[in-house]
Amino acid sequence: LKAEGKYKQGLQEGVWFHYFESGALRIKRFLKEGKNQVIQLWYYENGNVGWEENYEKGSAEGQWKYYYANGQLRLIRHFKNGKKEGKETGFDSKGNVLWEWSFADNKRIQ
Predict the structure, then answer these.
(1) Cβ(72)–Cβ(94) under 8 Å?
(2) Element (H or E) spanning 80, and its range?
C-alpha cells in the first residue's frame, strides 16, 4: 500500500493518501494534532466512498457512515468515547430503511 503525506514535528499531519496497488485511491486521512483527531474516508477501487470514520485520541467518535459499492448509503452509526451511542440506521441498496436501533454505552436499548 503506497502512502503519501506530510509530517510535523515527527508526526503525521494534514491530509494523507493511501492507494490500492492499481494506483486508485484507497484511503484519504485528515489528521490534526498528530493522531489526536482523525477523519478517514475509505474508498472502493471503483472510486466510490466505502465509509467515513472519525476518531478522537484514538477512539471512535461522532457519526460514521458506510456505503454500498454503488454509492448508496448503507449504515449510519454514532460513537462516543469508542462506544456505540445514539441512533443507528441501516439501509438496503436502494435506500430503504431496514432497521433503526438506539445504543447507550455500546449496548442496544431498542
Answers:
(1) yes
(2) strand 73-80
pLDDT number for residue 33: 73
Tell me the three state secondary structure of residue 46. coil
CB of 54 within 8 A of CB of 74?
no
> How many Cα neighbours within 13 Å face the side chain of 54?
14
pTM for the whole structure = 0.87
Cβ neighbours of residue 92 closer than 8 Å, sequence gap 6 or more: 98
For residue range 15-28, list pLDDT tens digits in order: 999 999 999 999 99
Tell me the CA distances in angstroms from 7 to 11, 49, 69, 74, one per residue in order. 5, 25, 32, 34
